[in-house]
TrEMBL record:
<protein>
    <submittedName>
        <fullName>Putative fructose-bisphosphate aldolase</fullName>
        <ecNumber>4.1.2.13</ecNumber>
    </submittedName>
</protein>
<feature type="binding site">
    <location>
        <position position="129"/>
    </location>
    <ligand>
        <name>Zn(2+) 2</name>
    </ligand>
</feature>
<keyword id="KW-0479">Metal-binding</keyword>
<dbReference type="InterPro" id="IPR013785">
    <property type="entry name" value="Aldolase_TIM"/>
</dbReference>
<dbReference type="GO" id="GO:0004332">
    <property type="term" value="F:fructose-bisphosphate aldolase activity"/>
</dbReference>
<feature type="binding site">
    <location>
        <position position="99"/>
    </location>
    <ligand>
        <name>Zn(2+) 2</name>
    </ligand>
</feature>
<dbReference type="GO" id="GO:0008270">
    <property type="term" value="F:zinc ion binding"/>
</dbReference>
<feature type="binding site">
    <location>
        <position position="174"/>
    </location>
    <ligand>
        <name>dihydroxyacetone phosphate</name>
    </ligand>
</feature>
<feature type="active site" description="Proton donor">
    <location>
        <position position="77"/>
    </location>
</feature>
<feature type="binding site">
    <location>
        <position position="78"/>
    </location>
    <ligand>
        <name>Zn(2+) 1</name>
    </ligand>
</feature>
<dbReference type="GO" id="GO:0005975">
    <property type="term" value="P:carbohydrate metabolic process"/>
</dbReference>
<dbReference type="InterPro" id="IPR000771">
    <property type="entry name" value="FBA_II"/>
</dbReference>
<feature type="binding site">
    <location>
        <begin position="204"/>
        <end position="206"/>
    </location>
    <ligand>
        <name>dihydroxyacetone phosphate</name>
    </ligand>
</feature>
<dbReference type="InterPro" id="IPR050246">
    <property type="entry name" value="Class_II_FBP_aldolase"/>
</dbReference>
<feature type="binding site">
    <location>
        <position position="203"/>
    </location>
    <ligand>
        <name>Zn(2+) 1</name>
    </ligand>
</feature>
<keyword id="KW-0862">Zinc</keyword>
<keyword id="KW-0456">Lyase</keyword>
Length: 295
């Protein structure tokens, strides 16, 4: 069933688990993600950020998400412009990320506030980001100057009205150098939690370390993004199997199962497996009535 990300994260925050936001790109990865969630009885967030193909993606992703028995939100990851956000809302995304983390604080607030007003008018969740989650291969995660400031986080949430906030506390996007496991600043996370009441988001989940991620999922980190590990699981499985003498559908199947199995691992690690049983489908409510899919 298709739901808003706000609905998913509310339950995750109350129950002490995190929902995985798995990046997808083609049909087979989308199907693998949905099947992993359904087989695990887990809520799921489909992350997609390949502009300008959002309408083509939503042609199948929305239909498939509506048919599965588990709650699924569809989020546009790292949206860079107001126009991108509006395209995604028009296409049917239930959440958009307004990433202005590279801008000065005041400009970040100004631009994100505009998107929040438009998105909320359409019932769409908005994720903001404060601090900067850089690239793992450049060791940006070691630069504490890029981390989220707790006091600024409180002001940012209050002034923008975002529904959830991505924080920088030691992880990074992409693949870490061999043997490196990031050190997450849990003291900073606790300080942010004391000042911010909305769900928090952790980007750069791939390679973040099972102990780190499992611990984070029990805090106010209610959404953890995973891309590189899922991508590499599929890629490595295809390379290991070899392409000689294989039909393309066989290769797709190899990628599909590798992606699905890796995602199921993360769903268990984040504590979301089995949580979908709390949800149920409901009929559309009258205008002005608050919607919830929770029993």
């Amino acid at each position: 069933m298709l739901v808003t990300m706000k609905e998913l994260l509310k339950d995750a925050m109350e129950e002490g688990y995190a929902v995985c936001a798995s990046n997808v790109w083609y049909e087979w990865s989308t199907q693998a993600a949905l099947d992993a969630a359904e087989e695990s009885g887990s809520p799921l967030i489909l992350n997609y950020n390949y502009m300008p193909n959002v309408y083509r993606f939503m042609d199948y992703a929305k239909r498939w998400a509506e048919k599965v028995s588990v709650p699924v939100a569809i989020n546009h990851d790292h949206g860079a412009t107001f126009e991108e956000a509006m395209h995604c809302i028009h296409a049917g995304f239930t959440s958009v990320m307004a990433d202005r983390s590279d801008l000065p604080f005041e400009e970040n607030i100004r631009q994100v506030t505009e998107i929040v007003k438009a998105a909320h008018a359409c019932g769409v969740t908005v994720e903001g980001e404060l601090g900067h989650v850089g690239e793992a291969d450049q060791e940006d995660n070691l630069n504490t100057a890029l981390y989220t400031d707790p006091d600024q986080a409180a002001e940012y949430v209050d002034r923008t009205g975002v529904d959830c906030l991505a924080v920088a506390i030691g992880t990074a996007h992409g693949k870490y150098n061999k043997g490196i496991v990031p050190k997450i600043d849990f003291d900073r996370l606790r300080a942010i939690e004391e000042k911010v009441s909305i769900p928090l988001v952790l980007h750069g989940g791939s390679g973040g370390g099972d102990e780190n991620l499992g611990k984070a999922a029990k805090t106010h980190i209610c959404k953890i993004n995973v891309f590189t590990d899922l991508h590499d699981a599929a890629k490595d499985a295809m390379i290991e199997a070899g392409f000689e003498g294989k039909y393309l559908p066989e290769i797709d199947d190899i990628a599909y199962f590798a992606y699905k199995d890796k995602l199921k691992y993360y769903l268990n690690l984040f504590g979301s497996a089995g949580k979908a049983k709390k949800y149920r489908e409901i009929a559309p409510l009258e205008e002005g009535t608050e919607r919830s899919v929770l029993k």
